Amino acid sequence: MPLRRNRPFAFFWTAQLLSNAGTQISELAIPLIAVLALSAGPAEMGVLTALESLPSLVLALFLGVYVDRLRRGRLLFWANIGQGVLIATVPIAAAFGWLTMGQLYVVTFAVGSLALAYGLAQTAYVPVLVTDQRRLTAANSSMALTDSITAVAGPGLGGVLVQLLTAPIAIAVDAASFFVAALLQALGRGPDPRPIQQQSRFGTSLREGFTAFRAQPGIVAITAGKGCADFFHWGALALFVLYAVRELGLSPAAIGAIAVLGSLGPLLAGVLTTPVSRRFGTAGPAVVAAALFGGGLLTPFAAGPDLVLIAIIGLGQFLLGLGIVYLIIIRATLLQRTVDPALLGRVGAVIRLVEWGTGPVGGLFGGFLGATLGLRPALIVLGIGTLAAVPWLVVAAARGHLND
């Protein structure tokens, strides 16, 4: 069945589109409200960024086991509802003058935990909706396009909303998007099979996930390389908004414009991954994708009027996003084709642990570098560090581990 005629997948894709659009707004609005309304410094921004990825470090393995033991469609629905409720507390607190960095910390960690559960379940749920393996790459590209389309519209819309209506209003839009996404998913009525009952203990289930992960060297290489790069990327994320506002003097709308330009990279990856893989295979393009991670280095070297800054930094984010999303799509397809569906949640949890688990330390490291070296030198160091992914992909490609 063509994907456009697959009703449950179409509803699921649309729900993802809406919730991701809201998320992109909050990813810009929450750091802005921390900097502009609560006067957060480099260390506080480092903590805020670290808490976003901390669930992957402390909860990924636990959630991975239970994702494989629960109905995944039901889990996705309630994860959307939970994120909407949590995010709605931020504009409510701001309206009454109660908002603090402490609340932003709690909400960021809790929403990150639910987003982690959602992400693990989503990867395992796509093969339930799309049963023809020949269409899995196209389905994963469609999901990546969802992320990319919203990444194009979301930050720009977020910048405008923050500029015109304040950050709390922008965050309220994000909360509403999760409730609408949950409703659409329910209306789609996708299949939600009961998982195979597992009699093994928790520790045994974890070992099964690690064993299945290690058995796929291509997946291991992409994950390890991306995990190394993500450590430095999370550090750069902790400093980016602070650098853009305080060092470059950019407005929220200008920062949103940079995000829009940068998000065209993931959008292009979603469009090109399938034809590029058919024409050139996956190994060579994967190495090129890893090299594109260095696009973040353009940020600390950008100089000039606002329009020039937006163009240069936007180009760097474009290249970075193109490389990241290409590798994510290729890995998702490898994962779904080679790993037992009953183990997808646990293997996905191992992947999140390796990649996002570096985020808390990376975010704190970025905040530390920004406080000690200054924002611009810290961003240079962190940008160079993202190229740590390249050796992993070069070795894996030479050994034939990335062939799809």
How would you concisely characterize the structure shown here?
It is a multi-pass membrane protein. GO terms for molecular function: transmembrane transporter activity. The protein is 81% helix and 0% strand.
| Strand percentage | under 5%
CATH architecture: Up-down Bundle
Let me know the number of strands: 0
Alpha carbon gyration radius: 20 Å
CATH top level assignment = Mainly Alpha
Give the helix proportion (percent range). Answer: over 70%
* Uncertain stretches of 5 or more adjacent residues: none
Overall tally of structural domains: 1
Average residue pLDDT: 80
| End-to-end CA span | 22 Å
Q: How large is the count of helical segments?
A: 17
N to C succession of SSEs: HHHHHHHHHHHHHHHHH
CATH T-level fold name: Growth Hormone, Chain: A
- Annotated CATH homologous superfamily: MFS general substrate transporter like domains
Biggest sheet details: none
Would you tell me the structural class of the helices and strands?
mainly alpha
Shape: globular
Describe this structure in words.
- It is found in: Cell membrane.
- Keywords: Cell membrane, Membrane, Transmembrane, Transmembrane helix.
- One of its GO terms (cellular component) is plasma membrane.
- Helices cover 81% and strands 0% of the residues.
- With 404 residues, it is mostly helical.
- The chain has one domain: Growth Hormone, Chain: A, CATH 1.20.1250.
- Helix 2 packs antiparallel against helix 9 and helix 9 packs parallel to helix 15.
- The longest helix has 33 residues.
